Amino acid sequence: MQYTTLVDEFEHYSTWREAVYVRVEALRDWLEAQELGDAESGVRLNQLLARLQDDTLNVAFVAEFSRGKSELINAIFFSDYRQRVLPSSAGRTTMCPTELFFDPLHRPSLRLLPIDTRTREGSIADFKRDADAWTEFPLNLDSAEEMSATLVRLADTLDVDVSTAEAFGLINPDDEDTAHTLEHDGSIAIPRWRHALINFPHPLLKQGLVILDTPGLNAIGTEPELTFNLLPNAHAVMFLLAADTGVTRSDIEIWRHIASVQSASRARLVVLNKIDGLWDELKTPAQINAEIAKQVASSAALLDLPAGQVYPVSAQKGLVAKVRDDAALLAKSRLPELEAALTQELIPCKQTLVSESSRAAVEDVVIRATELLETRLATLQDQVDELQLLRGKNRDVIQHMMIKANDDKEQFERGLEQFNALRSVFATQVDALRRQLGMQGLRHEVDLTRQAMEKSHFSAGLREAMSRFFRQVGSNLDGSAEAIGEIRAMMTAMYRKFSDEHGLAAVSPPDHSLHKYHREMARLERIFDERFNTVFKMLTVGQSQLTARFFETLASKVVQVFELANSETESWLKALIAPMETQVREHKLQLKRRLESVSRIHAATETLDERIAELEASIGIVSDQLDSLARINLRIADALADELGGPSLARTA
Predict the structure, then answer these.
(1) Helix and strand element counts for the chain (H, E)
(2) pLDDT at 60 over 90
């Protein structure tokens, strides 16, 4: 059976994304050339182009150690490289969470965050902005041996005393299991590194693939950013079991953790790896398949899943088969079935998300430009009709038309005074909104909460600090939502007033809601509460210390959420006022031209036919612009609707 591989499908997706980029870029350039764009439209399209260019596809591999994650990553993504990119051997090969990606602005390298940064304030995201915090090793792409030797550092450990391990938040010295891990001299082996970043110029990584390798439940517990950021943001999670160990208690805990933090809309696949351990030369193929099916059914039952959602594979044999071009061994490894499932779940979901966000942004810009052109067209046609009526009329009639044009201009200028007064009120309301939703106030709340937690030595105090923080954040969001409603109501009334009094095109101000940010805050609070009562008790870290670290990372996530809310609200505020400003500017220009036209005709009636001809030529130009805009919009819609695997749109754009 022939399968479309994830590599092939991701390449098709990248081609589709490039086609959309080219056509959105054409829209932006055309609007600029025709002088039809405004500042807000330019910002929206440039933001969309930046998202398309920097778009990533995040796949997380999650399991306890020694389940074969690194080998599966090598088999699925890097077999064409004809070597193992990630080290894979017996025992624990990856001791810290590891991200694989490609950044063309930096050299290929392995960057490692020392474990002692656990004693410093800040999340992984904070440390990513501090280049000096990392230890960097260049990757020699011309030497497989040197590159492999460099990447082996992912497995580095340190022998430290119990107090040091406790200070790093890795153990609880009072826990019974900790005693079994101590050496005779009282030392304990811990990971040397806290986090790893591999910048590697693989073709898939160049196209935006980002891979997260997570080494076990202890890493999930001690690095809360995995809980609050990296895992929830993954577009797919590959959860690995091992056929030789079956489903262990820690496997079940990890699975429950994944289900609790990841959206149901994201892909989750369970992989039963190392089925080659069941290949017994003394058994028939039917007996071997029956044994594998039994393991699949047992694993599915323990995870409360249909058996069809558990994929048995041999990552090691699949990698060997791909490197050696052994079709029979590849089929026996069952890797193609897993790749097909990942392809069918991951890529279409990702394409839908990108398509929907792109379509919404383009539609807003196109509608705004279309309304502007239609207003311009209607105004020009009104002027033609008005001048047509002047044919054969005497100078008194033309004088009357001139007086009327002046009256309309003066009435509009009085309306402009009201508009400018409105803008002053608008600015005052916006300032009040920014104070409630702004980052300065939020960071102050974060600092107050951290201080309260540091002073508390009991879980009740920690909980109260957390609860007060969420109450304050919720209150800020509620107040911001109320302010947004008042601002929109005011602008809706002003739009209606200008439309009725001056004949401007009817425009409905865009909606804006903070509801999704309310939901995100509720999700973060729920996750923290669940972790406090479940995962915390299972891990070997002191509850007080782990709670403080979790909340510090949680606070960092809340800051990110507020930054997104601020950015989206600022864009909405611009979108709210920009159409009105554009229409006012356009109407003022057309009134000026109308007055100039009638004045010229009043001075020399023989210019009447000439002016009508000029206006009709302008009507033709605007009509052509509307047609061109519709064609450009249709080309973008065609690109967005294109099915993956079709012909390359980028080449025909």
Answers:
(1) 23, 11
(2) no
DSSP state letters, 114-151:
EGGGGGSS--HHHHHT-GGGSEEEE--TT-HHHHHHHH
pLDDT at 161 over 90: no
How many CA atoms within 13 Å lie on the side-chain side of 533? Answer: 7
pLDDT, residue 652, reads: 37
Find the Cα–Cα–Cα–Cα dihedral 636, 641, 647, 652, rounded to 10°.
-10
Give pTM, 2 decimals.
Answer: 0.67
Long-range (24+ apart) CB contacts under 8 A made by 329-337 are 332/279, 333/276, 334/275, 335/75, 335/76, 336/1, 336/3, 336/5, 337/3, 337/311, 337/313
Instruction: Please name the residue that has the structure tokens 């077999």.
Output: 79
Please check whether residue 645 is in contact with residue 12, taking contact to mean a CB–CB distance below 8 angstroms: yes
Runs of H (alpha helix) within 144-248: 144-151, 162-167, 176-181, 203-206, 217-222, 225, 231-233
Using an 8 Å Cβ cutoff, are 184 and 98 in contact?
Answer: no
What six digits make up the tokens of 384?
Answer: 């033609």
Whether residue 4 is predicted with pLDDT greater than 80 in this model: the reply is no
Q: Which of 303-312, 424-433, 549-558 has the lowest mean pLDDT?
A: 549-558
Q: Which is more confident, 351 or 650?
A: 351
Question: What pLDDT is attached to residue 536?
Answer: 46
Residue 129: count other Cβ atoms within 10 Å of its Cβ: 8
Q: What pLDDT is recorded for position 22?
A: 94
Query: Which residue is listed with tokens 């401007």?
Result: 504
pLDDT at 90 > cutoff 60: no
Q: How far apart are CA 191 and CA 94, in angstroms?
A: 9
Pick from 407, 313, 376: which is nearest to 590 by CA? 376
Q: Do residues 92 and 66 lie in contact, with contact meaning Cβ atoms separated by under 8 Å? A: yes
Q: Which long-range contacts (CB under 8 A, 24 or more apart) does 11-18 make?
A: 11/207, 12/347, 12/644, 12/645, 12/646, 13/57, 13/347, 13/350, 13/351, 13/644, 14/207, 14/208, 15/648, 15/649, 15/650, 16/351, 16/639, 16/642, 16/644, 16/649, 17/52, 17/55, 17/354, 18/650
- 547, 559, 558, 554: which is closest to 453 by C-alpha? 547
Q: What pLDDT does residue 415 have? A: 67
DSSP assignment, residue 199? E
Whole-angstrom distance, CA of residue 306 vs CA of residue 270: 11
Q: State which amino acid sits at residue 230.
A: L
What is the tens place of the pLDDT at every residue in 402-446? 777 777 777 777 767 777 777 788 888 888 888 888 888 888 888
